[in-house]
Specification:
Elements lengths: L5 E2 L10 H9 L2 E5 L4 H12 L4 E5 L10 H4 L7 E4 L3 E4 L1 H10 L11 H26 L10 H22 L12 H9 L1 H6 L3 H4 L3 H11 L2 H4 L25
Length: 250
């Protein structure tokens, strides 16, 4: 079984014809994720912006996890990265840092050690507290878990509490860390796309104008548009009511 950071023996891979083998040799690696995965968007955007070739293999754990995938990610989650050198990485923040570090001239990791620490802080906050609270709001409304009105109301309040941290930080600054774009902006904007696609509607956005302005600024950047041409921005969000259709994974 494969765990965490390890090297996968690629020598036993099936033989390929010349052109396919050449393509794989030039590839930086493969990323396994479902289509438009919020946790993979920032990774793909950075890779494209620095000219790294990442092959994409679709895996949707909510539907089915292929047998081979458990050896790459024992939790059966996405994303997972397998480098052309055999390196296997799970967890989106680790993968994002690995991809970004491949560019020796990058400014996306901040201009000081403290900047880097703040970048990690923002990505960690978003990937844990923010995503968890958004999921608790959305999942009952799409039939992924049983619906309970009071639990949805609490999730709405909890989400607002977490987003207020962004709102307070962005009221007098353009970016999350320092005075330039960093990996924190790229990853965090990607992570909240499913909120803006499902629940952060026009009325909700009135309460978080700085957060919304920041999100749109980042998502309309060419590097983000390259991986998500249409920016998620729902006008009327999912109502706090039982779903009318069976759950369907994205």
């Amino acid at each position: 079984m494969v765990h965490g950071n390890m090297l996968l023996d690629l020598s036993s891979s099936p033989s390929e014809n010349g052109s396919e083998a050449e393509t794989k040799r030039k590839s930086f690696g493969t990323i396994y994720a479902y289509k438009r995965s919020p946790r993979a968007l920032g990774i793909l955007a950075v890779a494209k912006s620095i000219g790294l070739e990442l092959e994409e293999v679709e895996v949707q754990p909510a539907n089915f996890v292929p047998d081979y995938y458990w050896a790459l990610n024992p939790l059966g989650k996405t994303p997972t990265f397998v480098g052309s050198d055999g390196l296997v990485l799970t967890e989106c923040m680790a993968i994002a840092l690995h991809v970004t570090n491949h560019d020796s001239t990058t400014t996306l990791l901040g201009s000081s050690p403290l900047d880097f620490i703040q970048i990690i802080r923002w990505i960690s906050l978003t990937n844990t507290d923010v995503v968890t609270r958004m999921a608790s709001w959305v999942r009952p409304l799409i039939g992924y878990i049983p619906y309970n009105e009071d639990q949805v109301l609490k999730a709405q309040q909890d989400t607002a509490q977490a987003i207020q941290i962004f709102e307070d930080n962005l009221c007098d600054r353009k970016y999350l860390v320092g005075d330039r774009l960093t990996l924190a902006d790229i990853m965090c904007a990607g992570l909240v796309t499913f909120g803006f696609a499902k629940i952060f509607d026009r009325e909700w956005r009135k309460n978080f104008p700085y957060f919304t302005e920041w999100y749109l600024m980042i998502m309309y950047m060419p590097m983000m548009k390259a991986v998500m041409p249409e920016v998620p921005l729902v006008e009327v969000g999912l109502p706090n009511a039982p779903p009318t259709e069976p759950f369907k994974a994205p």
